[in-house]
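Re: export button greyed out
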Amino acid sequence: MDEALYFPKKVYVTKDSRNSFITRRVLENTGHLPVEFITDSRELIEDVLMSRNPAGEGKKLLLVTHQRGGYVKPCPCTPKYIGCNYFIINTELNCPLDCSYCILQLYLNNPLITIHANTAELFRQLDDFLHKNRNRTFRIGTGELGDSLALDHLTDRSSELISYFAEHPNALLELKTKTVNIKNILAHDPPGNIVIAWSLNSEKMADEEEIGAPAVHDRIQAAHLVSQAGYRVGFHFDPIIHYEGWEDGYAKIIDDLMDHIDRKKIAWISLGSLRFPPALKPVIQKRSPQTKIIYDEFITGKDGKLRYPKPLRLRLFQRVFGDLKKAGGGEIPVYFCMESRDIWMDVQKKTPRSKKEVEKLLTLPLGANDF
Amino acid sequence: MKLLEVPLDDINQKDERFRFSYHFDLHKLLISIKKFGLVCPLVVVKRDESKYVLVSGWKRVLACLELSLTHVPVYLLDEQDDCRAFLLCLYENWAARNFNILEKAEILLNLNGFMGNEKKIVKHYFPLLDIPATLTYFDTYLKIALLDPTWKKIIFKKKIPLASVQLLTEFSPEDREPLLPLVLPLNVNKLRQFLEDLYDLSKKTGDSPKVLLSAPDILSVSQSENLSSLQKAEKIRSLLRAKRYPTLSSWKKSFDTSLKKARLSKEVDFDSASFFEDGEFTVTFSLKNKRAFQKRLSKLQDLISDEDLFSMFKSFSDG
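Workaround output, generated via the alternate export path:
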């Protein structure tokens, strides 16, 4: 298992975060790197934004600062398609991996790898949020605006979150990653409401498009270790990419997955096809000139994003879903990320009436896949 | 600054070091000069003994030349630093009007030549020019400044928006050459689609745009003697679209064929919104009176037995 850990070229700490616990931990773990304490991060951010490759340059610098806005937010999902009632915790921003299709390249208010250090405020906001939602079970995760574990060797954030959520069983915490950075996870007792999830792709797409991410087999190996340690695991085939030979490419990964992971340990699998706002296309063209995936045929979906035409999406989903079933994953809850009711119905022969129903499907006890 | 009256010939019209505007409509200025003379003096600097270098007033100089004026009023600027002289010209114009894409490109090319500090230029002058302050835009505008004059003229005349011009700069000069007669007749939206499809196709296939435009089907259109330049441009645009989106184009074709077979009257329109994304079709029809309404309904009623038409519904909504 190839464990190439991320280290920036330089660490910046805003003065308000200087004494926070997580800052001290980050500085301990990056002791060999140059550090600069700054009063205000705006000038630094503007400087990186000005560069020819803000997303690329931003990955080289680590900013430890306070989160000024809310830590907990509903997942933005996409308008006019079925969502899954997911909530996100913005503990980190941006990701050291460099996937060609990554939407974060477009969110350029701050391109630096950013760790939010006001942890006391994070837990205060989580307390509030969980108290308000004490009568429901829902899913929440940190992997939307960054990779949940890519910085874990610097922050040990996972331990804090796992310990916290162990005391709050009405929430399912998902830590979503493409890395194999699981040392801290394995060092912890696994509470039942923690799901460690991996984004998977075919080996070819991972090699060509997910630059800096471990091989897919290594991710499955990491998931195997984590599930053996007692955690529930999740998988996201997202984005499924259409290319010559995609059928075999994804079938191979599904076989690998089912060969190595006890399906009873799989909390959910999501499927999503490649989609992106039109504004991301020139960014991908510039940052990943070798990629061909953006030159496939796309339509403008109901949400304004470019996506494969529906018949092609159906083929992709039906095949991957069918392969999962064939490989023995028929009982695993499968949901679609940002898809229409028709797709649910045509692939799974059932469709949720609302995002609450999706939430219910994914928070049911293991093996009770029915809605 | 000294106000002088100088012979027009004493202004070195070959020295364009401060110039950033090249495309002028002189019509109104000619009328004004004819009526009242040149009201607003030019701004010049002296760089050698014999000739003046024009800092500001190219449009006025061209108008005066056209009117065969021999002498013009000038302000002689006592400024030895070219960069400062250029900034004077820039601010003078900036205060009076908006710059077009080509002028912004020339301004940045000049500033780069005078200052050579790209970060400083981006930070200080991009907000002035209303350009997002990134080096990526700096590169784009420099590429625009280096386009050849024929393309610049087209960009100016057709008011081509930045996104399309940006795309154009991505083509090599050799690839841009065969494009010229093809995009010239198109409106700006179709021009953008043309460039986008050609660029994407080139990336997808690995063939250069020049090679793609030399394909037999495209050559037969571009070399046809029976088609006007607009017809050629439109046909080639459609061919490129079909190559860029073969599946979607074939669906559209078969959708149109099915509708044609159903022999709907012109007043009835079938539409598949968002490339069949909804799996739904919209039927609209117009009418003038109750009789026409009955007629349309009866025609639509007949369609229910049209198996071909409804098999098309199935194929597009289910894939």
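Chain B is about 60% helix and 10% strand. The button fix ships in the next patch.
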